[in-house]
Amino acid sequence: MQVKPLITVVMPSYLGNYPNAAKNRETKILRAIQSVQNQSLKEWELIIIADGCQKSVDLLKENSFLEDTRISLYYIDREGLWSGSPRNAGIHLAKSDYIIYLDIDDSYKTNYLEEVVNEIQDGKPWYYMDDIIYTKNGYERRKVNYNVLGKCGTSNVVHRKDCGVTWATKGTYAHDFNFIKELLKIHKNPRKLHAYGYIVHHIPNVYDV
Question: What residues does 133 pair with on adjacent strands?
């Protein structure tokens, strides 16, 4: 009998060109997926949404990732840069009660999902946490500020599937900040988790590793 996942990772995938995109995303998406498979927590599911990107479908079918029954791949028509439709599709398809995100050019520390799941048992609509960025001194913890554009994003939130908030289908580069503003409308005082383990490998015009 298949075990219900404790958390769903939603990963949109578009490998085409667009302004300020990370380099080598065909390689980085494999790193991202492997970082989920390497989690100490095993009861997860990963939903990858190919955002009008057949290249994403072909790449993942060439690898063995889809043999892992916890990983699902879906294709949707692309609606434009920064559209929230891929993440909305992932939320709709999720089997767990909680949603967390991972971009194809980023990765997780090995114990990240386990630490998150252990802290969200009180069933609040959403939570926030710090992430990890690359600095001149190597990778370091970055403190999140969900009230400031550029100080928060998809690397900093986990929310219930049924929280009632969806992503804007017509988005901008600030789409993740705007999503958090919508979360704040339903729960103004979210709890900060001790967990942190989302590694941001790319900040446009700052670094790309």
Answer: 140
Task: Give the pair of three-digit tokens for residue 36.
Answer: 């989920």
- Other Cβ atoms less than 10 A from the Cβ of 1: the count is 3
- Measured CA to CA, the distance from residue 114 to residue 156 in angstroms comes to 16
Model confidence over 35-83: pLDDT tens digits? Answer: 999 999 999 999 999 999 999 999 999 998 889 999 999 999 999 888 9
Give residue-wise pLDDT tens across range 102-137.
Answer: 999 999 999 999 999 999 999 999 999 999 999 999
CA distance 49 to 86: 6
Residue 155 makes CB contacts below 8 A (sequence gap 6+) with 101, 103, 106, 131, 198, 200
Within 10 A of 60 (CB to CB), how many other CB atoms are there? 19
For residue 1, pLDDT beyond 70: no
Between CA 26 and CA 42 the distance in angstroms is 25
181 in Cβ contact with 148 (< 8 Å): no
**Spacing of C-alpha 21 from chain mean position:** 16
**CB contact at 8 A, 42 and 67:** no
Amino acid letter, residue 120: I
* In the block, residue with structure tokens 């080598």: 24
Per DSSP (E only), the strands in 66-123 are 71-76, 98-101, 107-108
What is the side-by-side strand order in the sheet with 138-142? 107-108, 198-199, 131-135, 138-142
